[in-house]
């Protein structure tokens, strides 16, 4: 069997997830024995016509992005979105909360027409996405897990439990009990609760669990002394495009 | 002599973000030589509007994965100035070590993984795994070591977790720091010595091109400035950081979604070479030796030498972080909580040297501690006009070479600036409309 041909593409993002792959240092060489990297603009000159697996980083935010993502999907057998920008719209999507014209004008003034921009969307808003790797930035062990699974023809494991579960397994003191804000109860895990592990609160960078009880979470945060407005604003950092968050917003407005 | 030339490099490779090189010469007249920035704008200012001071650095870190630590540090310093939050000496030392680590990491990534393939005439680092395995392995070890500095002190090298206004949510254990310092002394020094020898043997691959320009960086009496200092222009001397808008004078050009900048001349340069030219006397001895070995001496007007200056800084940062860790370890790490009680609300301006040059963050907070106005000026944006000026001088000088050779020299030129295009399009001046 010939080695799978994999490619990496970057859209609107900080490219931190791609960089995280270059940070595989110890595993990079063994990874190269497993697959052929045929396109990775940030690190190499080569390009290719077709891909067995295309990894997409970043969200879709300009007409050019839309054209490119359709084109890549046509040429890729398997398409994986990589990181919160690609999967959820990420922090980029917070832009959508402001009136579009104001955003453009505030930055470029009367030259705003030079640089078209559209509401930010995740990759799945435009093309079929086969697998998702969440996180801001994505975690390299999870990336390796997904890549290995695809190469072996298995379905990668999908995490759909709350960060609280992993945080408890790590035997951390509850962040809320420490008097800090936290989105752990409704946020999707897979991160090994890395932020609470390091004394921070969970910002929900992997989005929400699929059956998140937003009204319950907001109520719980209120009991811990945080306002509805603050809870909503913090949920919007990564999940502003999530219907659940918007519904909760209506209910509490 | 060639009269017509058309070069269009679509989505230049081995740089961070999306840029095109466009050169157009007709009847012997150079009509266009520019780097088009086609990265999608991200509008961070819209994301920051109304955000609380505790969240701001978490968001601004996401401007750029490569420079996330630098953005956090500049952001935290601006917030601390605006809110009158004093930080401890220990916090400052830890942040300095982090800045050293981030520069070490980013410079290594650029010089050895993105630029070095040009010197060895291959299209990426991957083929070198077979032909130069020992070099690739040493480079990978250096990168890992640099990232470990970030991991141990800030919890994660990309998008650090522990750095917050007023200090750190968690401190490294002395045992971890000692182990890290030991690795810097042994593995780090051995690998950088080996890499410097390899690069020295390739010195003839660096194009001979000179164009004197204005060099702008931070400068400090205490040290080779990264974490803090005042603005220094090689043309006209020093300025307080608060006057940054007089230095950057940003303007919009049609071919770039990132704004350009200029000060005393038509353009200026920031980054490793600018820092080296302005502050070379403060390099640690080993870094000075490395500079000598690699043929870099101040003032240097060859932009291609920026990559070499980056390696000199890697040597400096390794030495400097070993020294700073000595200081921390001899005093012992004290437990302290971050100081997060604002003494005031208002405006704070801060500058930090990040790998690609001087970075400014400028915030204004309202009485609720929420952002009402934000402005960040990114190094790559400041370099763009200088890159265009370099191209305009370079193209006529090499016009008789083959089109492939000219294209290659232009690509190498842009790459040598280590442009971070995602960064450059994300933060531009904006006035928030108060609700």
What does this structure look like?
The complex is a heterodimer of chains A (253) and B (435). By secondary structure, chain A is α/β, with parallel strands linked by helices. Chain A folds into two domains: 5-151, NADH:ubiquinone oxidoreductase-like, 20kDa subunit (Rossmann fold), CATH 3.40.50; 163-252, no CATH class. Chain A has helices spanning 16-22, 28-34, 63-75, 84-88, 100-108, 140-151, 163-169, 194-197, 214-223, 228-239, 243-252; strands spanning 5-10, 36-40, 51-57, 76-82, 131-133. In chain A, strands 2-1-3-4-5 form a five-stranded parallel beta sheet. In chain A, helix 3 links the parallel strand 3 (51-57) and strand 4 (76-82). In chain A, helix 10 packs antiparallel against helix 11. The radius of gyration of chain A is 19 Å and the shape is globular. Chain B has 435 residues and is α+β, with helices and mostly antiparallel strands. Chain B has two domains: 5-37, no CATH class; 44-431, Cytochrome-c3 Hydrogenase, chain B, CATH 1.10.645.10. In chain B, 46% of the residues lie in helices and 15% in strands. Chain B contains 14 helices and 13 strands. In chain B, a hairpin with a 5-residue loop joins strand 11 (357-365) and strand 12. Chain B is globular. The model of chain B is unreliable at 426-435 (pLDDT under 50).
């Amino acid at each position: 069997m010939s080695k799978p041909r994999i490619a990496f593409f970057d859209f609107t993002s900080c490219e931190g997830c791609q960089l995280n792959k270059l940070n595989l240092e110890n595993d990079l060489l063994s990874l190269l024995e497993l697959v052929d990297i045929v396109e990775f603009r940030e690190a190499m000159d080569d390009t290719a016509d077709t891909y067995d697996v295309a990894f997409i980083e970043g969200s879709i935010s300009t007409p050019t992005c839309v054209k490119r993502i359709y084109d890549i999907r046509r040429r890729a057998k398997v398409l994986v979105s990589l990181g919160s920008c690609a999967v959820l719209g990420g922090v980029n999507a917070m832009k959508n909360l402001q009136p579009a014209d104001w955003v453009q004008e505030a930055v470029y003034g009367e030259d705003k027409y030079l640089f078209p921009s559209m509401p930010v969307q995740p990759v799945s808003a435009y093309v079929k996405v086969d697998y998702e790797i969440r996180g801001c930035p994505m975690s390299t062990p999870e990336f390796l897990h997904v890549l290995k699974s695809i190469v072996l023809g298995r379905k990668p494991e999908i995490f759909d439990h709350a960060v609280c579960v992993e945080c408890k397994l790590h035997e951390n003191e509850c962040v809320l009990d420490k008097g800090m804000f936290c989105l752990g109860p409704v946020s999707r895990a897979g991160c090994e609760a890395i932020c609470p592990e390091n004394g921070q609160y969970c910002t929900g960078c992997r989005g929400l669990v699929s059956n998140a009880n937003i009204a319950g979470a907001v109520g719980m945060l209120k009991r811990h002394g945080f306002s509805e407005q603050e809870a909503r604003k913090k949920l919007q950092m990564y999940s502003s495009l999530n219907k659940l968050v918007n519904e909760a917003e209506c209910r509490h407005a | 002599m060639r009269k017509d030339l058309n070069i269009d490099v679509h989505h230049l490779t081995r740089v961070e973000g999306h840029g095109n090189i466009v050169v157009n010469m007709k009847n012997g007249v150079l009509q266009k030589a520019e780097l088009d920035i086609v990265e999608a704008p991200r509008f961070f200012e819209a994301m920051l509007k109304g955000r609380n001071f505790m969240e701001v650095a978490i968001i601004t870190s996401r401007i750029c994965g490569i420079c996330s630590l630098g953005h956090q540090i500049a952001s935290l310093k601006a917030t601390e100035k605006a809110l009158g939050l004093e930080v401890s000496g220990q916090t400052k030392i830890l942040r300095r070590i982090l800045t050293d680590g981030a520069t070490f990491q980013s410079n290594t990534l650029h010089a050895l993984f993105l630029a070095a393939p040009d010197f060895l005439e291959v299209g990426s680092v991957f083929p070198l795994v077979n032909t130069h395995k020992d070099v690739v392995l040493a480079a990978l070890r250096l990168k890992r070591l640099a990232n470990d500095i970030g991991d141990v002190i800030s919890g994660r090298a990309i998008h650090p977790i522990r750095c917050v206004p007023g200090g750190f949510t968690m401190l490294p254990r002395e045992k971890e720091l000692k182990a890290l310092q030991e690795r810097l002394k042994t593995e780090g020094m051995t690998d950088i010595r080996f890499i410097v020898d390899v690069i020295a043997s390739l010195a003839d691959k660096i194009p001979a091109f000179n164009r004197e320009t204005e060099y702008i960086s931070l400068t400090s009496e205490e040290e080779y400035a990264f974490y803090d200092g005042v603005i220094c222009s090689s043309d006209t001397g020093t300025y307080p950081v608060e006057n940054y808008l007089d230095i950057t004078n940003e303007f919009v050009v049609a071919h770039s979604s990132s704004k350009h900048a200029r000060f005393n001349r038509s353009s200026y340069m920031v980054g490793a070479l600018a820092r080296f030219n302005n502050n070379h006397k403060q390099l640690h001895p080993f870094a000075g030796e490395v500079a000598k070995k690699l043929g870099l001496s101040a003032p240097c007007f060859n932009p291609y030498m920026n990559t070499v200056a980056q390696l000199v800084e890697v040597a400096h940062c390794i030495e400097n972080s070993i020294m700073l860790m000595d200081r921390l370890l001899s005093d012992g790490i004290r437990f302290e909580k971050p100081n997060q009680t604002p003494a005031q609300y208002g405006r704070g301006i801060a500058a930090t040297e990040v790998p690609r040059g001087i970075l400014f963050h400028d915030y204004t907070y309202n009485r609720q501690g929420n952002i009402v106005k934000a402005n960040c000026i990114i190094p790559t944006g400041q370099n763009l006009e200088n890159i265009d000026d370099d191209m305009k001088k370079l193209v006529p000088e090499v016009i008789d070479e083959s089109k492939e050779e000219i294209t290659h020299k232009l690509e190498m030129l842009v790459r040598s600036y280590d442009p971070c295009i995602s960064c450059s399009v994300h933060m531009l001046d904006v006035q928030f409309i108060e609700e």
